[in-house]
Amino acid sequence: MPKAEPQDEIDLFIEGLPKVELHLHIEGSLEPELMFELAQRNKLEIPFKSVEEVRAAYDFSNLQDFLDIYYQGMNVLQKEQDFYDLTYAYLSQVSKQNVMHTEIFFDPQGHTERGVPFETVLNGITRALEDGRTKLYVTSSLIMCFLRHLSEEDAMKTLEQALPYKDKILGVGLDSSEMGHPPSKFARVFEKAREEGFRIMAHAGEEGPPEYVWEALDQLQVDRIDHGNRSLEDEKLVARLVKDGTPLTVCPLSNLKLCVVKDLHDHPLKKMLDLGLKATINSDDPAYFGGYMNENYKAVAHALNLDKDALLTLARNGIEAGFLDPVGKEALLGQLDGYAKAA
Ligand code: HPA
Ligand code: ZN
Questions:
Q1: Closest atom, ligand 1, to C-alpha of 70
Q2: Beta pairing class for 99-106 and 278-281
Q3: Conformational region of residue 30, where left means phi above 0, alpha means psi within -120 to 50, and beta covers everything else
Q4: 52 noted as active-site residue
């Protein structure tokens, strides 16, 4: 047998690595095949003739370009079963990639705005998460995001809708169009969310300036920053993030597709690790950006020449940054250590 090329060896190492995903929008895991199936089931017209035509439309020059198509795509999600099928398809996919635990975002306002009840969305997703635990052995939790292009009042109403379901929703986040919608716009909503015991995170520094990351830290008091790429422009901010050990949920293929980086060779992930930032790898919207967890790990590992130690650090950061109970966290860390020793 010829010896495996080093690249293949890294790919195999990534495939076997026990991973945790912390930045995944469930609506962004809607594959074109399921989009067509749900359109047919719900008797809806969609503006595409084929799966190929849908994929060809996924050519974005910035975040807003993507969001326009992402909100259009989610129109096919109407019934509880649609949300179940969407979520179970994602879990099936990642369970084949050795993702042991996943923390899933959903955008309730993207559905309630079009007349789909909050409970329809929540029940479909949570039923699939439960089946994911028992049938696929993937543990999970759910995080509700506020759409930052909508008003503070709308976000507050959404938070109130979630209060009876605190046993099902672990945290709240902030997503959608970043520029012009700083975290400070939602300071009161997040204050109430904190008082109610939710975990807190926000997208910041994807397109927005370092000031938005400062606001997420100081005004929203986040447990994690989603993306955070532009933090590197501000030395004091980097020092603060390192000192506090604030995790960054980085999404390499998303950054490439949304032109946050021109080329993966320019991706700041390695620099983040070198600076001592607690960076993790995630897929964001895998159906739109060309890959799930393994594809993200592989693309960035090859582009930045990451070795096994760097990949183990990234996987360990993911476990440590997760909102797992201490027993679950220790078990996963032990599994990762076992994998490292055998490698
Ligand atoms: N950024 C902001 N909002 C989003 C994203 C993202 O990457 N994906 C889905 N909603
Ligand atoms: Zn995101």
A1: 9
A2: unpaired
A3: beta
A4: no
Using a cut of 0.85, tell me whether the model's pTM lies above it: yes
**CA 204 to chain CA centroid, nearest Å:** 13
Q: Side-chain half-sphere of 336: how many Cα atoms within 13 Å?
A: 25
Domain ranges of the chain: 18-321
Q: What is the pLDDT of residues 253-288, one digit of tens each?
A: 999 999 999 999 999 999 999 999 999 999 999 999
Residue 40, burial from CB neighbour count under 10 angstroms (0-12, 13-18, 19+)? exposed
Q: Residue 15 Cα, ligand 1 centroid: separation in angstroms?
A: 26
Q: Using the atom order of ligand 1, give the atom closest to the CA of residue 206.
A: 1
Cα–ligand 2 centroid distance for 203 (angstroms):
7
- Of 31, 80, 103, 206, the catalytic one is 206
Gap between the Cα atoms of 250 and 134, Å rounded: 29
Ligand 1 centroid to Cα of residue 176, in Å, is 5
* Sequence letter at residue 283: S
Q: Assign domain 18-321 to a CATH class.
A: alpha beta
Residues with CB under 5 A from ligand 2 (ion): 284
CA–CA dist 190, 26 (Å, integer): 22
Minimum CA distance residue for ligand 1 atom 7: 284
